[in-house]
Write a structure and sequence with these properties.
Homotetramer. Its cofactor is pyridoxal 5'-phosphate. The protein is an alpha/beta fold and 408 residues long. 42% of the residues lie in helices and 19% in strands. It has a 6-stranded mixed β-sheet, sandwiched between helices.
Length: 408
């Protein structure tokens, strides 16, 4: 047993005084779909609905003389630190991005109570991180990094200890979501070469893949904050030291709209509430199905702190990705009966989800923004054929990012 494995097991034992091991559950739906034994490591069922409590607990138990802890977090690390501050009677100052979902802010306040104060600073995590570190230098206290900390990494590795105990052996593959790299580096280091580890990142925050290609941590030019639990612009230096050997193809980038499809399926079919980062590993199964057939695979569902006010957006993005919803800019004659004629183009499985005139002053034609939903993606082929047959000019703007931002 390596020194790291020994420390991870010690950390795991300390956690049993605070919370029980999270479940490892075989998922029938996914197992049958991919022809493998697929297990979900349900970190969404921890006391703070994410694995972040582990790193916070392990780091704070090693700082028994420290009374003030400072952290920066997009939400889950904040909740872990807040929970442990209240449990240990410590003071916490927590910095969160302004864009953090309200659900995560409220839960952080609930877990920490009077033991924590929250500062909302920065649109992106890296701005929040800089503000927290500056405050800590000026005011004192122990800065508790969400991922770039040896004790945090060691604490997150307790996930691997539990998987090994619950499964009775090591799995063939494990799929790990990646944000700053603390959990993924800890779990993969514990398993070492015994398990093929795969790493899933959102395409708008693929900081591990960028670092592997550059052979060093690099700052992404742009970060999409939709997958807020993994929207990190630069992987941590300590995690990268443990992950720099990872083959580039093992760092999987997952489109944000794809992740939405998994969130909906897990919610509607399995009754499992996952935040976007929590669904990353499950959605990544589709990219490695040829590797995992007949194998034992663990997907880490890293968090379930989902704000249901985001559900309409998640449904919208999932429909667009599946080809079940499109937005068109349509040139429609401004005369009686024109709208009725257009509606006859639609089939029995088609529905108008949005209809808005963009140029109401045009004399002969008006530009209409129209959203169409259907039950099968191939139905749009027939819609476009009928539009062409009637000589109606239209532009599909569904995947036009610029127009979508302004019009949709």
């Amino acid at each position: 047993m390596s020194d790291f494995q020994s420390k991870a097991r010690t950390a795991t034992q300390a956690m049993r005084d605070v919370f029980p091991a999270t479940p490892l559950q075989r998922n029938v739906l996914l197992s049958e779909r991919y022809g493998a034994d697929i297990y979900l490591k349900r970190e969404d069922l921890s006391p703070v609905r994410s694995y972040k409590i582990r790193g916070a607990l392990n780091a704070m138990r090693k700082q028994t003389d420290q009374e003030l802890f400072v952290c920066a977090s997009a939400g889950n690390h904040a909740q872990g630190v807040a929970f442990m501050c209240k449990a240990q009677g410590k003071r916490g100052v927590i910095f969160m991005p302004v864009t953090t979902p309200q659900q995560k802010i409220q839960k952080t306040r609930m877990f920490g109570g009077d033991n924590v104060e929250i500062h909302l600073i920065g649109d992106f995590f890296d701005d929040t991180l800089a503000a927290a570190q500056n405050w800590c230098r000026e005011q004192g206290g122990h800065f508790l990094s969400p991922f770039d900390d040896d004790d945090v990494i060691e604490g997150q590795a307790s996930i691997a200890v539990e998987i090994e105990e619950q499964l009775g052996r090591s799995p063939d593959h494990i799929i790990l979501p990646v944000g700053g790299g603390g959990m993924s580096s800890g779990v993969s280091t514990y398993f070492d070469d015994d398990v093929h580890c795969l790493f899933a990142e959102p395409s708008g925050g693929a900081c591990l893949r960028a670092a592997l290609e550059a052979k060093q941590p690099v700052a992404l030019k742009r970060v999409d904050t939709f997958v807020d639990g993994a929207a990190v612009g630069r992987i941590g230096a300590k995690p990268f030291e443990l992950l720099k050997h990872v083959p580039v193809p093992d760092a999987l980038t997952i489109d944000e709209d794809r992740i939405c499809s998994t969130i909906l399926e897990m919610l509607n079919v399995e009754g499992i509430v996952l935040e976007p980062a929590g669904a990353l590993a499950v959605e990544a199964l589709g990219d490695v199905q040829s590797w995992i057939r007949g194998k034992t695979v663990v997907c880490l569902t890293s968090g379930g702190n989902f704000d249901f006010e985001r559900l309409p957006e998640v449904k919208e993005r999932a429909q667009r990705y599946a080809g079940l919803k499109k937005y068109l800019m349509l040139r429609l004659p401004q005369r009686p009966g024109a709208l009725k004629e257009f509606l006859q183009i639609l089939g029995p499985e088609d529905d108008v989800a949005r209809f808005e005139y963009l140029k109401k002053s045009a004399r002969n034609f008006g530009t209409v923004l129209i959203g169409i939903e259907t039950k099968r993606p191939e139905n749009f082929h027939h819609i476009f054929e009928r539009l062409d047959a009637q000589g109606l000019a239209y532009t599909d703007i569904t995947n036009d990012e610029t127009l979508s931002q302004f019009l949709i």
